[in-house]
Amino acid sequence: MASEYRFVLFSWRDVREALVTYDRKRGQATPTVPPVKFRVNREALDCELTFGKDRPKRYLYDKASVVAALIMRCRDRGVRLPLKASKDLHLLEGRMAMSVHIAGAAEPEMLNLEILGNSVAA
Hints:
Helix content: 10-25%
Number of domains: 1
Number of helices: 2
Shape: elongated
Number of strands: 8
Order of helices and strands: EHEEEHEEEE
Radius of gyration: 22 Å
Structural class: alpha+beta
Strand order of the largest sheet: 1-6-5
Strand content: 25-35%
């Protein structure tokens, strides 16, 4: 059966705001001012936010946390995502993209059958 892929593209500002909102909803006191640095590891797709110039404080987010933050962002913005679909991160057109894969129904295995007299051989 066919499967479906969707891509939701996010601006870098959306990603930063999603991470801060994600922390706040988890009870972490993230600063309300914009970060002085925002870094994304292109291979691992994890993120780092740095707040404050004199005494910088870094907040690190692994890929799973970034995905969770972007899912929350979609839900808060009314973008519906299938619950059972798999989600992953990509860099696409210079932006962060979340792919949503909706697997089709499993197809029964096709067997090579050969009828021999009164029995069947597979």
